[in-house]
DNA sequence: GGCGCTTTTTGCCAAATGGCAAATGATGTC
DNA sequence: GACATCATTTGCCATTTGGCAAAAAGCGCC
């Protein structure tokens, strides 16, 4: 919980009472490796915060290939915004790649907090637009680089992920095949 | 101006008086083909709205290649958020690809509106997060597709752009060379 | 240690894309 | 129309990456 408080206080100030209101709504949940936090076709009902573990957001393209859109590490929010905000079915899976510990807010509680805590919505907006900007900034440059450069970029962005997850997920994030990535890795070291 | 009003009313309600306050702050500006709306290294000072023409956001990678991050068509906001919000130098150029007509708000006026019009900040937040989500959704899938598929995706996303701008900008958006794109185009039709 | 399972690496060849330079086409100007 | 300028296409060949299948490595379990 402390981690979450620290996280949100980066984006604005809240007093002790407000922080307690927020804390009271949070539930700690364990997600086993390979479990889904939310699934394509369903409407996202929760906001999560990763305390421990790695999660990825992925989907299947029209050739049936599995594509990883991004990874979410410790101390980040995880929420399928489009689905959560607009109450429409999600198009993506949120998948625990390792055993995870999460803080969870139900939609109802989350909205209640937005209405009762002054300034909370401003903080949430800041958090979310920063996260969205980050997604653009991380994913966009991959388009114009070759596979080796992409892998190096991945290492820079997610230095703590590479040794904790299978190579196939990294390949599906970078848009290269597993074999190519294996060869690239060999050539680098 | 009417276009802008229509645009913002999609995201929330404002009364006549509020709309007039907003209108009064807007200046109409013409930007010649190849002029810059804002430049890398400078701090973004304006929010724009494209009334007519096409703008692109681009930068140079560490190999000196010019990369187009996205295009902005008529009836969309143009603002370098990261720079505007945080008052830090931008890393990108905003470049008029055709002659453009824009509505411009200065930073001072924009902030004044945010403070005086109740509900305006909620609308702005909605507009901006939608735009950010759109950028992720458009750019991200390119990573995992081959060049032909990327071009077809471009055509779907920007059906009204292809005939109005040079091929080289499209190539720099898709992360392929101009020659490859030329060949791809030939094979499709 | 041996077995079954999954992940990663390799080999072989085909296909896609890049690099570079020249040819062609398009457009505006005098 | 001739010319200059810029955008696009094409040719040729090198390099990168993919597809597929087999081999090797890693890991948990008995």
Counting DSSP E segments of at least 2 residues, the number of strands of chain A comes to: 8
Low-confidence stretches of chain A are: none
Order of helices and strands of chain A: HHEEEEEEHEEHHHHH
Question: What is the helix tally of chain A?
Answer: 8
According to CATH, the homologous superfamily of the largest domain in chain A is Jelly Rolls
**What is the mean pLDDT of chain A?**
95
| Main sheet properties of chain A | 4 strands, antiparallel
Helical proportion of chain A, percent range: 40-55%
What does this structure look like?
Two copies of one chain form a homodimer. Chain A is built from eight helices and eight strands, in the order H-H-E-E-E-E-E-E-H-E-E-H-H-H-H-H. The first copy, chain A, is elongated and about 55 Å long. The first copy, chain A, folds into two domains: 2-137, Sandwich (Jelly Rolls); 145-189. With 189 residues, chain A is α+β, with helices and mostly antiparallel strands. The longest helix of chain A is centred in the C-terminal third of the chain and has 20 residues, at 120-139. The model of chain A has no long low-confidence stretch (mean pLDDT 95). In chain A, strands 1-8-3-6 form a four-stranded antiparallel β-sheet. Chain A has a four-stranded antiparallel β-sheet with strand order 2-7-4-5. The A-B interface holds A 61, 65, 67, 69, 81-82, 125, 128-129, 132-133, 135-136, 139-145, 172, 174-175 and B 61, 65, 67, 69, 81-82, 125, 128-129, 132-133, 135-136, 139-145, 172, 174-175. The first copy, chain A, binds a DNA duplex (30 and 30 nucleotides) through residues 146-148, 166-168, 176-180, 182-183, 185-186. Chains A, B: GO terms for molecular function: kinase activity.
């Amino acid at each position: 919980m402390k981690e979450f408080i620290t996280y949100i206080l980066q984006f604005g100030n809240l007093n002790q009472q407000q922080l307690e209101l927020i804390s009271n709504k949070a539930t700690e949940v364990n997600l086993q490796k390979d479990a889904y936090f939310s699934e394509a076709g369903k409407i996202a009902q929760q906001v999560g915060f990763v305390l421990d573990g790695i999660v990825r957001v992925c989907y299947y393209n029209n050739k049936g290939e599995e594509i990883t859109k991004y990874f979410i590490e410790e101390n980040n929010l995880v929420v399928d915004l489009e689905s959560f905000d607009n109450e429409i079915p999600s198009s993506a899976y949120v998948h625990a790649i390792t055993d995870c510990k999460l803080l969870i807010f139900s939609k109802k509680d989350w909205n209640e907090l937005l209405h009762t805590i002054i300034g909370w919505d401003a903080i949430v907006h800041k958090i979310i637009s920063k996260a969205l900007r980050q997604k653009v900034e991380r994913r966009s440059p991959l388009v114009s680089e070759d596979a080796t450069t992409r892998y190096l970029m991945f290492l820079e962005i997610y230095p703590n992920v590479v040794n904790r997850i299978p190579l196939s997920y990294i390949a599906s994030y970078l848009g290269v095949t597993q074999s190519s990535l294996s060869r690239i890795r060999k050539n680098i070291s």
